[in-house]
Structures are given as C-alpha cells and as structure tokens.
Write a structure and sequence with these properties.
By secondary structure, the protein is an alpha+beta fold. It has one helix and three strands. Strands 1-3-2 form a three-stranded antiparallel beta sheet, with helices on one face. The longest helix is centred in the middle third of the chain and has 14 residues.
C-alpha cells in the first residue's frame, strides 16, 4: 500500500514562490499542484513578502464517504 493511501483527508504543501504579486502566486501555486498531480487543490494561504510569496496549497485526497485506502486489505 502506498503512503498516499494512508492520508486521512488532505495533503498540504507549503513553499515560497518568486513572483510579482499575490495573484501571480495563486496562479503559480495551482499550476504547481497540477504539475505534481494533486487534484482538488486550493490555495489556502498567500503572503507576499519581498521577492515573492509564501503559499500553502491543500489537496483533498479523500473526501468524506469515499473509499478510504487504509480500510482496504493488502494483498500479498
């Protein structure tokens, strides 16, 4: 079973992006999430500071009521 299958609900990624403003930071953050294969991603935090912005991206791996990976039996 992969580690991703053990994620309870969401995966958060925080980084600093070199950009001109918060709007560009949000666009870059969502592009980054897509490049990493993170579906259902949202930007939950943006703070412009100097050369860029600190951003936090949240991607929901399991939504309530979905089949959770950790409940499935492993096969040998």
């Amino acid at each position: 079973m992969s580690a991703m299958q053990h994620v309870l609900d969401a995966l958060d990624l925080e980084t600093f992006l070199v950009c001109q403003n918060e709007a560009e930071a949000k666009e870059l953050a969502l592009n980054l999430a897509a490049e990493l294969g993170l579906s259902h991603a949202d930007v939950v935090f943006v703070e412009q500071s100097g050369l860029g912005a600190r951003v936090r991206i949240r991607s929901y791996i399991h939504h309530p009521g979905q089949g959770y990976g950790w409940l499935k039996e492993e096969t040998a």
